[in-house]
Design a protein that fits this description.
The complex is a heterodimer of chains A (155) and B (302).
Chain A: H1 2-9, E1 18-25, H2 29-35, E2 45-53, E3 57-65, H3 71-75, H4 77-80, E4 85-90, E5 93-99, E6 105-107, E7 110-111, E8 127-132, E9 137-140, E10 146-148, E11 153-154
Chain B: H1 14-29, E1 40-45, H2 50-62, E2 66-70, H3 84-94, E3 97-102, H4 107-114, E4 119-124, H5 130-144, E5 151-155, H6 162-171, E6 177-181, H7 190-198, E7 203-206, H8 209-212, E8 218-221, H9 232-241, E9 257-259, H10 280-298
The chains are: A alpha+beta (155), B alpha/beta (302).
Bound molecules: zinc ion (ZN).
């Protein structure tokens, strides 16, 4: 089984060292790239979307060479891709594999849905406390309103 | 508590809130004390609120502080497009504490993060108005002799009224039983009700104000604004059924007192004013003592 899995991942060019984010919902691959600011990354970044997946129908995958994210960085992904798996590759081998987790706080990446919030009028970084990880409810540190579900949008 | 900003009522613990109320009682006995002569208090009103501003300025003046600031942004650099960040940084060079009111929610929290001096939030949009909450608590304790184990009714717009949300949250620390009276479309938001449940307290919901009057120690009235209704006919119906008239008070407990954050429009008729249960004008006066207590505490003089 494990062998099979490894081989499937190799369909997209393998990386020697770095991180693989697998099982991203196909439509959210570009959002993940944006959240992790991979446009600005200087080493190799490979991505594919609309790959067939037995579990998910269609999925996306991103491979980033020589990059090992901090857990808080990687947990941001959970906001757009709660199904994602993070795989650490060392020497072409899977060194570690885990599911992403919704973080306790979310900084800078989410927009407050409240049009009258100061963060939508002044140059202020947004900050939220995650008050419900399951339903994804984020309470704004500034206006104290809750942004959730469909009203979550990314900066 | 010295140098501690007050942005949201929850910034102060229950003990800190009580300390402010105790000190406010001292100022009620002796309102004029020149203990802040060496201090400058800035009052920045990015939207006008004469009532709140005068209450703060009266509090500062009775303590001998100098007051600087503006009552509306009209003729200031704010009007010329200066950022809130820059205005706050500049004013914190000129003052020892900033009292601010601003139309945007979260503005006071943001100001407290960029200012070198403490901030007192005098209202940030629809979000928080913690000095109103403290003066409400002071008024409740004053009229009932305690904050504990009371039956408190909130009447009117419980959905949008920030005054109601903050006071409900604060009272959950005192084993309050809540009686919530509102039209169906203006019920207390579920997030606030969740806080009541978290503390294992009880609330009851009503649409008829007459049902609660015999039950409660405090009747907290609020204004229902026309803008909240898409249907003007619904507003007219609601407006009349949530108006308090003197004959309605016949079955009230003798200790019951009526509070209202003012200004009132037509939710309490003027014949109620002469009833000894009417407390709303004294409630407004209590605001000065509470603000004196806050200024003196945060500036580290008391
Ligand atoms: Zn906000």
């Amino acid at each position: 089984m494990e062998n099979n899995e490894t081989r499937k991942e190799l369909k997209v060019t393998a990386i020697g060292n770095g991180s693989v984010i697998d099982h991203i919902p196909a439509e959210n691959v570009f959002q993940v790239i944006r959240i992790l600011n991979l446009e600005a990354f200087s080493d190799m970044v490979l991505f594919a979307t609309n790959l067939e997946s037995q579990k998910m129908g269609k999925k996306g995958i991103i491979k980033i060479s020589n990059k090992f994210f901090r857990p808080d960085e990687i947990n941001k992904i959970a906001l757009v891709a709660p199904t994602a798996t993070l795989i650490i590759i060392r020497d072409f081998k899977v060194a570690e594999k885990k599911k992403v987790e919704v973080p306790d706080t979310v900084e800078k990446i989410v927009k407050c849905f409240n049009p009258n919030c100061i963060t939508n009028h002044e140059n202020v970084s947004t900050r939220f406390t995650v008050i419900d990880k399951g339903d994804l409810r984020l309470q704004c540190h500034y206006c104290e309103k809750v942004t959730s579900g469909k009203s979550i949008s990314f900066l | 508590m010295k140098n501690k900003s007050l942005v949201s009522i929850n910034d102060f613990t229950r003990e800190e809130q009580i300390r402010i109320l105790d000190l406010a009682e001292e100022f009620e006995k002796k309102p004029t004390q020149k203990i802040l002569q060496d201090f400058v208090v800035a009052t920045l009103f990015f939207e006008p609120s004469t009532r709140t501003r005068l209450s703060f300025e009266s509090a500062a003046s009775r303590l001998g502080a100098k007051v600087i600031g503006f009552s509306e942004p009209g003729s200031t650099s704010v009007q010329k497009g200066e950022s809130l960040r820059d205005t706050i940084r500049t004013v914190s060079n000129y003052s020892d504490i900033i009292v601010m009111r601003h139309p945007k929610e979260g503005s006071a929290r943001f100001a407290s993060e960029v200012a070198d001096v403490p901030i007192i939030n005098a209202g940030d949009g629809a979000n928080q108005h913690p000095t109103q909450t403290l003066l409400d608590m002071f008024s409740i304790r004053k009229t009932q002799g305690t904050l504990d184990n009371l039956n408190v009714a909130f009447v009117g717009d419980l959905k949008y009224g920030r005054t109601v949300h903050s006071l409900v949250m604060a009272l959950t620390n005192y084993n309050t039983t809540f009686h919530l009276v509102s039209p169906e479309s203006l019920k207390l938001p579920s997030i606030v009700k969740m806080h009541i449940k978290e503390k294992n307290l009880t609330y009851y919901q009503y649409t008829d104000i007459l049902e609660v009057i015999p039950e409660v120690d405090i009747l907290y009235m609020t204004r229902i604004q026309k803008e909240r209704f898409s249907d003007p006919i619904e507003y007219e119906q609601v407006k009349n059924s949530y108006t308090l008239r003197n004959p309605m008070l016949e079955n009230a407990k003798p200790n019951m007192r009526i509070l209202h954050p003012l200004p009132r429009v037509n939710e309490i008729t003027i014949d109620v004013d002469e009833n000894p249960m009417a407390y709303y004008f004294t409630q407004a006066l209590n605001g000065v003592y509470v603000r004196q207590a806050l200024l003196a505490t945060i500036l580290g003089v008391k």
